Automatic annotation (TrEMBL):
InterPro entries documented for this protein: Poly_Biosynth_Transport
Protein name: Flippase
Pfam family, one: Polysacc_synt_3
Residues annotated as transmembrane: 12-34, 46-70, 91-117, 123-143, 155-177, 189-212, 224-244, 256-278, 308-332, 338-359, 371-391, 397-418, 430-452, 458-477
Amino acid sequence: MELGAEKEYVGISAIYQFLGNGVQVVSGSLFYIFAARIFPPSDLGVIALFIAIVGLFGIVFTVGLNSAITHFISSNLNSKVYSPGKTLFRILVLGILLALAGLLVVYAFSGYISIIFFHSTSYTFYIKLLSLVLFGNIIFSILNGAIIGFEKFKISALISVIIWVIYYFGALTLAYIDRSLIDIIYGWIIGLALGILIDFVYLLAILARGYMRKHHRTVGSRSIFTYAIPVLLSSIIGYGASYTDRFVVAYLLNTYYLGIYNFTLLIFSGISFIAIPFNNITLPKFSEFFGNDQRAFIKSNVGASSLLLTYFYTPIALGIAALSPIVLYYIAGPAYVSGQYALIVVMLVPTLFISQNLLIQAISSVRKTSFFLYSSLGSLVANVIFSFLLIPYFGLIGAAFGFSSVYVVSFVILYRLAKKEDLVQYNTSGTLKIWASSIFMFLIVYFALHFMVERYGYSLFILPFLILVGALIYTVVASRLKVFSKEEREFILSMFPNRLNSIKKLISILVLGNQK
């Protein structure tokens, strides 16, 4: 298991990546909570549209270069032909040009964008300022992708912690002082400017260590765009695929049900931070294997990484599904409890196919990004068909199945294509044991919740109590079933240095069942 044998221990890097992504999720959530205390609901809607505008134009004008820069730098780290440093500057120049194009387009058409999103021109100046946020987002994502490409996972995570805290809480601080929406945008600009500065200075320090390689070549622009354009197109199609069910709910039902349904999906997206560190670490590692002509290592690590992701993600998703009524009650309010069955569906069905995250990284690492066009188109068609067929009869549950079909179809297509490239390897026995442990935990927690709610109502002590019970049940059952093989146990423990022997012992007991 080569992934665990790196000098910079992957386990420590993963912890930092979890920290970085966790801080981003928590900061974003707290941003909305505190913003709700500063601004009226109508202004919160405006902020949401600001974020949507930057997100949509960001997908278009990043053109997948944040993924491309990670891949090409990692795959050339040990190259005797290509220079990682020169590749960095080639992609960065392309990114700056595209970011400038995005800035000019948003600035020039700010009036039209204001009319489309806000039905008036009163937000034209705000959108002109958002063009700077767009520019900063694109450059920051590309620079951060470069740091990950050099496999500096800890630094990438620490920078993310600093920047996202400033990005969100700086904006809130300015808004609290002046009570103005424009201060939110100024806060975002300051946070991104600082992030770009830190990233750029750190990358210069990396390049000073010899990564420029004067007599080596740089990757051509054609190769870069051949890799990046399918990522762009599939991202746009995938964006539409993931929102189709919401549009159909709004069309066939009403905004009341859309509000409830949208909140269930917000909870679903909230646990995505579990998978993101796996994505951030495996893409550069797999790309390095590809550059070293070690495709067999990609395949073996897809299997090990998939099992590890499934081990952590599945019980959390099923735990939230089991606790769905009380989770919705406390996070959103009593009116949202009716969305519990939709939440159960979106937590159960997509989780069956969570390992497609690793398939995506493996496919990206061998430069077969055109495969994503097939999966995104298939997902879009599936969501349209299932949403229109099921929502009229089953309401939000039908919408949840339409949303889940995106993950089912995408996995089936990517699995078949990855198998043709000989990139697929799964531990079926270990995966079934994880699911057996998770389902056992789900059933106990689900029935215990309903019993306790009948007796005590939605008492505050129930949620933390059942979370602890569920975690204990899953940990004990999974360890007794011996989820991980001997080779996989060695792989996991090798992610941590010997100086952290206490952590290794704790992992051995809690995760691996202290198996000999």
